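debug: dumping io for the single-chain case to check the tokenizer round-trip. Nothing else runs in this session.
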Amino acid sequence: MRYVLTAAIALAVASPALAQTAPPTEGPITCMLPVAATDTAKTLKQRYGSEAVIEDLPGAEGETYKGLVLFPRAMDRRIEVGFIEDKAATVSGLTLRDTAKTSRWSVAGISIGASLAAVQKANGKPFAVAGFGWDYGGWVTDFKNGALGRMLPGGCSLTVRFGTKKDTPRALSGDGVKVSSDNPALLKLAPVVTEIGVNFAAK
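debug: decoded output
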């Protein structure tokens, strides 16, 4: 037994990578893990190896931008990482999308597929949602001084978008429309979280 333990310790000392904690592959996302504001494409590739791949990612109004994807082959683990001005030297934030029905990641207690009620509970009060059916539809526009509108420990912030596959009433659609999360018509529509963003403060 003593020989086995001694050999294991010697192997760990000889191979520092084995002694380091493996990067997370699921669980709560913070301002430091699995991606930090100090990360670059290079450090993420060093840490995640083949699970970190540069791809064209979807942007606003049909545009695309160069970013890095963690866990590109596992849709429920996928994380999209953006960089300031598309340069791989400075991380701007990360995004979870509904590439699967659920995600193995969560932020501030919410995840992909969460209901209005679940997000309202995490926020501690009702919040405002933009009308659906246009490029910026479904985004939470104001957390109304709730918990999700505050900076997270470590200095990053949260954005949340809702989506629905149902036909949306005109009163809940279009640019300029803002609806409270406790609105009966919105509750009946039952949208779910389709996108979560973690955004780092500009340097």
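debug: round-trip ok. The radius of gyration is 20 Å.
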